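Internal tracking record. Fields below are filled automatically when a chain is submitted to the structure queue. Please do not edit lines marked as system-generated. If the sequence contains nonstandard residues, flag them in the REMARKS field before resubmitting.
Queue: standard
Priority: normal
Entity type: single polypeptide chain
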Amino acid sequence: MSSLTIGKVAKQAGVGVETVRFYERQGVISQPSRRQLGYRQYPTETVAQIRFVKRAKELGFTLKEIKSLLSLRASSESSCSDVRRQAEAKITDVQQKISDLRKMENALRKLLTVCSGRGPVTACPILDAMEGRP
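SYSTEM-GENERATED OUTPUT FOLLOWS
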């Protein structure tokens, strides 16, 4: 079985060495075996795992959710419907975040309508509103 150093894993996966260590500490990837001098020896599959993690993060999954997805992938008891449910839950989460962001945008736009952009900062209606002053 072929093994890779942490630097080679990081380079092939397109992440930094500290990211590999972080994923290891978080339990997203398995602790590798070590050479006699203490250097980590990663199996080649680790590169694919880290790429999976990167892509899942790009889709908005948290590390906890990614660990769950990886567990589903590794389990012979799991089915595609289990993964689908997690993706559906993530869509719901994303839709809620979009709704929250729209509310923030609307609130900021309202603040902009009361601010001419002129005058001293001590009389700024945006800052006053953030402090709860009328």
